[in-house]
Amino acid sequence: METTGTKRPDWVEEAWSKAKEKTLRNLVRIGDGFPHASVGGAYALEEPHWWTAGFWPGMLWQLYEESREEKLREAAASCEARLDEVLDGYDRLDHDLGFMWTLTSVASYKLRQDGASRRRALKAANYLTARFNLRGRYIRAWNPWFEGDDNAGWAIIDCAMNAPLLYWASRETGDPRYRHVAEAHMDTVLEHFIRPDGSVYHIVEFDPASGQRVQARGGQGYAAESAWSRGTAWALYGLALSYHHTGNPAYLNGSKRVAHFLLSNLPDDHVPHWDFRLPPDVKKHRDSSAGAIAASGLLLLADQVGPLEAHVYREPAVRILESLYRNYGAWDRADEEGLIVEGTSHYPEGKNVGVPLIYGDFFFVEGLARLRGEGTIFWE
Residues 10, 84, 88, 96: which is the catalytic one? Predict the structure, then answer.
């Protein structure tokens, strides 16, 4: 992992130790389960097919690499094995293959050179590639949620973070087709998801037969033309990762444009509200997960620009992570399993508002790993 060479902030080691200690305590109950959102202070465990299934084992692998705590490795490996029922069952698979198998099988292969993990990750990459719509040049997001549902033309900004699985598969196999699909999808992100001011659409609907853009949809943001903060963070980080893997300056410039929009809309404590464009009568809940995702992406971005520009991205990333640690951390709370509080999962549907979210925890730990300048970043 590249680093900027800047001195590590004093609080980072303390935060890393507290995150590791709390995760080890949580491991006793969660084990090889799949937590998503905290309900009443305890993480609700979802079925293995749920899109967040990779974040808990990904965090375990991140902490294991430094600590070599065998219980972390054992639980992460067991989570990966449990996901075989989803991978081989096929029916529950959608574009979140990247989230799920990058943080389980790719992580395991990178850290342990496990051949079974490599095969799982390549199988997942093939399924993800098969979701590519050639006419529209996008990776289809979801399968029908109910009988008669038609979302074949829907793509979402979250998928920018699934592209690294395809870059890895191309590099691993020497086959450029995976990379071609990833780049085509990310080109569509630049063309159709990123507005001129750097704000981001969550869902863009295409005609699946012709590939023509139909409309934008609000999704988890307040409205189609609002600015959902977690989607902003997905775009910032996903584009920076695509630049990392391809060297295409269009992705770097896109990531920078999104970063400038996000940074110009942060509140005083540097942790974003769940949407950056809200009417005055809608409560501005924080989304700590959006902050954690953005911080890790900003740190990568700082490593990708010249030394005179790096501080523009690194310093706010540090401020976000420090605020999450000091103002949103639940380190000594026995009544809360989450590491960081005040995440907002899906405000329009009233789901998991103002609670810890496992992906917020994961990206907070990953952000600390970047600040420490040590360890493997699985997306890279």
Answer: 96
